[in-house]
Amino acid sequence: MTTTGAGAMTPSGSGVQATTHGYHKQKDEHLKRLRRIEGQIRGLQRMVDEDTYCIDILTQVSASTKGLQSFALQLLEEHLRHCVATAAIESSTQGAVKGGAEIDAKVEEATQAIARLLRT
Amino acid sequence: MTTTGAGAMTPSGSGVQATTHGYHKQKDEHLKRLRRIEGQIRGLQRMVDEDTYCIDILTQVSASTKGLQSFALQLLEEHLRHCVATAAIESSTQGAVKGGAEIDAKVEEATQAIARLLRT
Amino acid sequence: MTTTGAGAMTPSGSGVQATTHGYHKQKDEHLKRLRRIEGQIRGLQRMVDEDTYCIDILTQVSASTKGLQSFALQLLEEHLRHCVATAAIESSTQGAVKGGAEIDAKVEEATQAIARLLRT
Amino acid sequence: MTTTGAGAMTPSGSGVQATTHGYHKQKDEHLKRLRRIEGQIRGLQRMVDEDTYCIDILTQVSASTKGLQSFALQLLEEHLRHCVATAAIESSTQGAVKGGAEIDAKVEEATQAIARLLRT
Fold it and tell me: Most buried residue, A36, A77, A114, B5, by CB count within 10 Å?
């Protein structure tokens, strides 16, 4: 991940390539993770259907929620890294004021997403 | 739901019937809810696949987590109601000491399940 | 705790005594726990005042929140145990229908409190 | 807040001044917020002491936890904004590779803090 972030900072075009490459690697991980969660949700349906003991169903719900949160945290980390990199490039090429406003907007948007995750 | 809880208290066999009937009605609701969540998880996979903007994916994750928590809360409510009814019958037929221990064990188990939900 | 719950079921007056005794023991624990959390909140004020590094402040916030949740869970466990005991006595002395309605109301109230804890 | 972020980007010394000014304004808000939470915790002690109904205590716990989370989110927003600004300055003055590594470390640290908040 460090390489991706560093590559994105490079002023040359190769930075974009590195980002895309890193992104695709993550994409497969994300999809694998989400398919596992989908399997857990189908497992929950089976448990309800077979009248499994409530407490055991609740344990499986906790596991699925934990899976979703890990996915959200990884996505958020990538977003912060990427948003940081892009906003930093903007601010150094477009001047401090415009770059600063861009960063502020991105940070506010990310904070609101974190707030939504916390409140669920 | 009140009828189910009250029915479960009846010492006659009809109490079991009332519980089963109420349970089946809930079961359909549970399965419908879980199928909706499964659809949301598949939606997340599509979003990742189509490179949807991170923040929008995080919003969908929050919605899915909220759905799972609502399902857990409904299940927990039914469990508390049912566990209360059963433990109450135990305590009135088997005497206070054994009934009390039964209730204690059930309450501890439920509290641990709530703790797991809180920590995710 | 088992003794308290069992004691509360006893139809004689000694049940009330046992409950009160158990309650007082818990009360001291609760107050001690809350004073520790109060100390943590004052610690947070000192950290902000001394310009402590943000991430270290956030770690302390997590510790305080965890403390509050443990307190809430212990309180909830006692409440479920007590509400179960009282509602069970009601249902055995006042008949199934009224006792069932009483249990339903208590369980709904408790579930709503758990929902509020989950959403924060 | 936008001014603070933008000010921090300025390569001249005035950026530091603007940051400090903005920080002090926030500091008072933080301390006021924390004193309010401290009052809520003392209120909880009074409630326990006066044998207030469990469910009402739990409602107050939810309010205090919500207060702590709002404080954490505001702190996090400032941190992301500040860390972004500082890491951006580093990366533009020290070169992409070192700046990228600096950003990566900061983002990872922030994500771990968010994970701790989510798990409580």
Answer: B5
Touching check for C80 and chain D: CB below 8 Å?
A: no
Q: How much is the pLDDT for A96?
A: 60
pLDDT in tens, D58-76: 999 999 999 999 999 999 9
Tell me which chain D residue has its CA closest to the CA of residue C106: D55
Which helix H or strand E contains C50, and what residues bound it? none
Give the C-alpha separation, B12 to B1, whole Å. Answer: 19
B108·C11 Cβ contact <8 A: no
Q: What DSSP state is assigned to residue D10?
A: -
Asked whether the beta carbons of residue A117 and residue D118 sit closer than 8 angstroms, the reply is: yes
H or E stretch covering B32: helix B14-49
Q: In this complex, is the C-beta atom of D38 within 8 Å of any C-beta atom belonging to chain C?
A: yes
Instruction: Answer for the pair A60, A50: CB distance below 8 angstroms, yes or no.
Output: no
A 10 A CB-CB count for A108 gives 15
C46 touches chain A (CB under 8 A): no
The H or E element containing residue D20 is helix D14-49
pTM score, whole prediction: 0.80
In angstroms, rounded to a whole number, what is the distance separating the alpha carbons of residues D44 and D62? Answer: 11
Q: Following DSSP, what letter does each residue of B44-83 receive, concatenated?
A: HHHHHHTT--HHHHHHHHHHHHHHHHHHHHHHHHHHHHHH
Contacts with C109 from chain B: Cβ below 8 Å: none
Q: Using a CB–CB cutoff of 8 Å, tell me whether D46 touches chain B.
A: no
End-to-end CA distance of chain A, in Å? 28
For residue A71, the number of C-alpha atoms closer than 13 Å in the C-beta half-sphere is 32
Please say whether the structural domain A23-119 has been given the CATH code 3.90.850.10: no
Q: Which of C48, C65, C113 sits opposite D27 (nearest CB)?
A: C48
For residue range D74-90, list pLDDT tens digits in order. 999 999 988 776 776 67
A12: left (phi over 0), alpha (psi -120 to 50) or beta: beta
Q: How far apart are CA D50 and CA D29, in angstroms?
A: 32
